[in-house]
Predict the structure.
Amino acid sequence: MAKENMTPNSEDEVLSFLEKEDLKYGKNTNAPIETKKVEPVNGLGQAVSLPPTSTVSGANDNYWKNIPLENLPSRGMFYAEGSELTIRAATVSEIRHWSTIDESDILDIDDKLNFIIEKCTRFKIKGGQSWLTWRDIVEVDRLYIIFIIHEITFPEGQNELSTKMECTQTCSEDGAWSDDVKVKSNMLQLFEMPEEINQWYSSQYRCFEVVSSKLNETFYLYMPTIGVIERLRKRISEAKSQSKTIDKSFIKVAPYLVQDWSKFGQPEYSTLQSETFSWHLNKFTFVTKFAELMQGSRESAITTVCPKCGSNLSSSIFSSDSFTIKDLFLISGRLNELI
Ligand SMILES: [Zn+2]
């Protein structure tokens, strides 16, 4: 897991869910949460319109590629039956926007990732008229989808990303094997469902159904979507701008309590927060531990197999021996490789 080499963020108000994201991108910027978040330019109707023509990768013009949901880090377990996710290559105008990314600002990284997801994905229920939006995509799937978009944007390997991998065994004549390895989306390890939690997964409801005879209650927990995280960030930033105290114990569990991001405004945030105060202590503890287990199951690793000895190797995605997030859509080679 990425957190090992990171210094914990000392900023008091940086909250665990969002903090984990910072670590994922190898950032520890103490970025203030109250930084204004730029609203995405386009609304929800975006997914329906036809894509502009790509001049980056001629082979993929107007080409929407289906992503099998079972390949996603979430294995598609939280999407409605028959959901269909298609992606296309990023265009020059999108890459221009990406090029302004400020890699020291976690909120800007978040915005730019969402921008690419918004522009380059279509999400719908197969055969139906019912369009989902990019905000309905589960957040743990986001980086994987970004990688696939990167791959189809540069189909001839014009922007290969590589990372230094090293075997932990002394497995070749001159010591441990190490090499620069080209990174492919299927090498990413981003999330593994905790075994302890699996028992509450409901394939019918596409979420977690917790039936407690002890508490005489059934409640539901959800996999956080991009939309829920976006709304939660907004709620936190509003609360901070009004000098309200942030209830950290609530923020930690909130992403798992909201089913529909579109119904998570300020009133709902307050209602839900006060509701948690009436919970039985066991329920509060359960949900807190649930959130911790889920957070602990997020990774940002690249995995490969040592060609000499077959050991499974893993390294952090945005480590110092690796590429940065900006390199995903900006060719990272030297100038003369470009022309
Ligand atoms: Zn080895």
In short: The pocket of zinc ion is lined by residues 167, 169, 171, 177, 306, 308-309, 311 (CB under 6 Å). Residues 1-14, 26-61 have pLDDT under 50 and may be disordered. The first helix runs from residue 16 to 24. The radius of gyration is 21 Å.
